[in-house]
Amino acid sequence: MxxxxxxxxxxxxxxxxxxxxxxxxxxxxxxxxAWETIPYLSLHDYLYAGTLPLVLFCAFLVIFNVLxxxxxxxxxxxxxxxxxxxxxxxxxxxxxxxxxxMIQNVxxxxxxxxASLFSVKYLLWMLLLGVLPAAILFLTRIxxxxxxWMGIAWRAATSLAxxxxxxxxxxxxxxxxxxxxxxxxxxxxxxxxxxxxxxxGHYADNRWFAGDQSLVKxxxxxxxxxxxxxxxxxTLVIFVLGETGRAENFSLGGYARETNPKLKxxxxxxxxxxxxxxxxxxISVPCMFSNMPRQQYNANLAHHQEGLLDVMAHAGVNVLWxxxxxxxxxxxxxxxxxxxxxxxxxxxxxxxxxxxxxxLHRLNHYIDSVKDDTVIVLHQMGSHGPxxxxxxxxxxxxxxPTCDSNQIQDCDHQxxxxxxxxxxxxxxxxxxxxxxxxxxxxxxxxxxxxxLSDHGESLGEHGMYLHGAPYLFAPSQQTHIPxxxxxxxxxxxxxGIDQQCLRQQAQRDAVSQDNIFHTLLGMMNVQTREYxxxxxxxxxxxxxx
Length: 545
What we know:
By secondary structure, this protein is of the alpha/beta class. The chain has helices at 2-6, 11-25, 28-36, 43-66, 73-94, 100-108, 111-115, 120-139, 148-183, 185-188, 194-208, 261-265, 281-288, 299-303, 308-314, 363-369, 413-439, 476-479, 489-494, 499-508, 516-523; strands spanning 8-10, 141-143, 223-224, 234-242, 269-270, 273-275, 318-323, 337-339, 374-379, 445-453, 458-459, 465-466, 483-487, 510-512, 526-527. The longest helix is centred in the first third of the chain and has 36 residues, at 148-183. It is elongated and about 90 Å long. 43% of the residues are buried. The model has no long low-confidence stretch (mean pLDDT 91).
């Protein structure tokens, strides 16, 4: 009780303490990164470095003085402290940048993905930097022994003093601040909690306050065209949508370690220079299934507009989406879909996750039942981190030692790479099994497979882990993705495709997720005004193009 009695101060002191805590503790990661950008060649550089925490303190003091309403102050600071502590953990541990796309990931992730990020370290971090400071703040008694007008006057005076300090710093170091912001665009997004508040605001505006959200239909004119060859067999294409696979670790693309032995035997066509639409599933998946290229992609429009699978359905193509990664982000909302983690396949699933072979579980029963052209999308768990060691069965643990922890930033780098490479080896096996399944139906269907990952992954390069960096300055590890095709000889004949031409193209041309919408329409022989031939990767290698 004596301790609690000491937790008392006037409101000016309270705001000063809060501003100091936010500036020096909750923005320590920003200050460290900002100081790393300074060359320290003169006294001016050292003075500039010293102004960074001062400017933060002054800015927070002004903000807290403005928001110092008795009924608002403590609840607001409680929320800001807890959210800032959580944001700091992920920035410090994984090099994550907090922006609108990252907030979208937070709101749209499922319990399984979220649970993989929690750990004892995270709980201790939140206890020390979040819960404990929040409790001290909540228990502190703010004494107001002055008239109300004097309190306002003191807040105004301290705010004016803080603003004058910021203006003085700006007059002396404007060029330094401008250069830092211009040359290190991701640095500004590390200032907490403005990064959290602004990102949540933008996400909420796009998600719930964006005006008319009625469904926009596209491709209602879609229909199936004639094949080059009079072919009675129907077409079956399986699109395997990978998760967190990075091209840098695919031996098909030149990686020194053999991570794709089975796919090499399958003689797949591998596109060496493929890029993603985003650096997180919540952006890349709806983007690639939309009719919008990355440069013109509008996430709000994609949220309430039909996509590739809807156009396929308009053309009379059977569509099925099988899920093992928490959701299709709207891409399959209006077509048949099933969450394979709900099937409780004991041999492939634990309590909260399944291995990717579950996507093939009894798939042959479905294929046996279809009598028309069909597209099946298999959405992998793939190489989803940070718990890479849970993404493959024991027999795929070929590269050792491994990082058997979700605290990947604490693992030996080579052990982390070994673990990740084991996930790629398992993807290789799963894709080989899918191709074998397709081959078994080649007497009934013209069969083909498409595989690409939604985005890549950082494994500690440049101090970054996982994914989700803003695209503008995302490293290649997060945007360079594996992309491959396989087709049966009968499929190539029926569609007049020169596979040697495709192999040459795959070595030479740059492709991206912009090509998926139009390439899959072409592969299913669907004709519509939405189809753009120039974005169909295969068109130039069709004999009838």
